[in-house]
Amino acid sequence: MVLFFKKEQILPLALTMGDPAGIGPEITVGAWRALHAEGPAFFVLADPALFSGSEVPTRAIAEPEEALAVFADALPILPLALAAPVRPGKPDPANAPRVIAAIERAVALTLAGRAAALVTNPISKSVLYAAGFPHPGHTEFLAALTGAATPIMMLASPLLRVVPVTVHLALRAALLSLTTAAIETAGRITAAALREDFALPSPRLAVAGLNPHAGEGGAMGDEEETLIVPAITALRAAGIDAFGPLPPDTLFTARARAGYDAALCMYHDQALIPLKTLDMDGGVNVTLGLSIIRTSPDHGTAFDIAGQGRADPASLIAALRLAATLRANRMRNR
What we know:
Structural class: alpha/beta
Helix content: 25-40%
Strand order of the largest sheet: 3-4-2-1-5-12-11-6-7-10-8-9
Shape: globular
Low-confidence stretches: 1-5
CATH class of the largest domain: Alpha Beta
Number of strands: 12
């Protein structure tokens, strides 16, 4: 992977505030403290009042381009006033429209080439739903805003990259919705992103089985032969180094991980449990298949610890660094 260096940065990253009652403000401050000397530089779209007690210097900016000059000395804030006072740990649907507006504006700025990439702080889907938010989650909303046909979720860390073919569905629904076409599409988009954004010229995709022991030759289910093998065959015919289906219980050992660049998994927990077990702090959510780079921490709003000074900014720091690296790689490879 090509590493990011501050001297290469000509545009700041756009960071959304996420749910203001969650840990987003705290980890944003922690990320600025960790990155202000060397970068990558970012600005946050948020209400400046969220940072009034943070003991870090802040600076309101009028345009994204001002962030690069400000970042070394203060946290740049592109102001978006909230409708209601914020109480840490107590989300208020009254603020949901501004949370949504922060995402919309950050996407628009990134699409317009005024921000290098999009990094999103955690949102609470239930809070947004209470305010009439019509999308299942961040990923689907970003797809609508960018015109992406098939957004794909990747969780990435230095130890492992995983892509779930089915995502935020009940397990029963995920199994019913799993198709050869969905597996193939996820594999194609993943391979393209590994080449273009992760700078891996010949990516290797390990494809997980669905059933115990990858079906044990049909004794424990036939989905491997009826759904997964045809997708692998199609991916290989397209020139993609995809192989499997592999037994999920041995796919994530250190020895196995050395043999592939990303694991294509059949459902949410099959992918996220090993990633978060191996590297919760270093994990980053990356949305593949968008016309812009988007990353986010691999955790949620953590309302239970918000405002207590306990939130760890490591995943947000990793998300900011990875967004800058992916942007630099994409620019070089186009």
